[in-house]
Write a structure and sequence with these properties.
Elements lengths: L16 H28 L2 E3 L3 H8 L3 H9 L5 E2 L3 E3 L1 H39 L52 H11 L5 H10 L3 E2 L2 E2 L3 H29 L1
Amino acid sequence: MARKQAFKHDYESRNDNGLLMVRARCGMEGIGTFWCIVEMMHEQGGKMQITEIPNIAWALNVDVDVVKYVVFDCGLFTNDGTAFWSRRVNATIDHARAVSEARANAGRKGGERTQTARKTDNGQQGKPEETPATPVVPEPTPTPTPEEPETTQEEPETTPETAQGETTDAPRWKKPTIEEIDAEIKRRGYNINAEGFFAFYESKGWMIGKNHMKSWKAALTTWHVARRREEQAKKSKNNVNSIWQ
């Protein structure tokens, strides 16, 4: 399993002026929206396009106005009219890259020192004795008998997906159509909008984080599970509110 990256979360960040504004107007739904956007920014390298806001709202199952209020009106993010970002997120990403590069450089230098030490040891000990190679005796080719005529194995047909006549068992990934997504949703009995699913991943280039999507059907299951949890959470919230009214 790939190691997941973590980002800093300051103590008492809930008391930040911008987050207080979000909580006052949108409640904890707005707070959750903010932190989900922060996670998405870390996954996408720091910046997000303003045109993605409807897709973000769809993915988080919140109103578009909530996302717009969090992004534009509370001083939590910076934008240039095309994209929006967080200076804190970018600083965290830059720091993580610097640490990764420093570790990589240290690893390369350590490898160079090890190779130098090995060469020095080999020079002091002299050239090691070569082990004579064991001669390979070819196995005799059986001669076909009249009862068992010699057969020839047909050459596999080359496919356009393979290069230089080589074949592979790995299927090529194919972007699904809205019709295919809708058919799969109906087959599984999910309560998901096929056009929304397609539009969300189309805007991301069918990427999940920094990796290309391997199975859109698996992603569809993930959406279904997340949507079901959100609906259960809303029902629980409504039940609690009805008790206190």
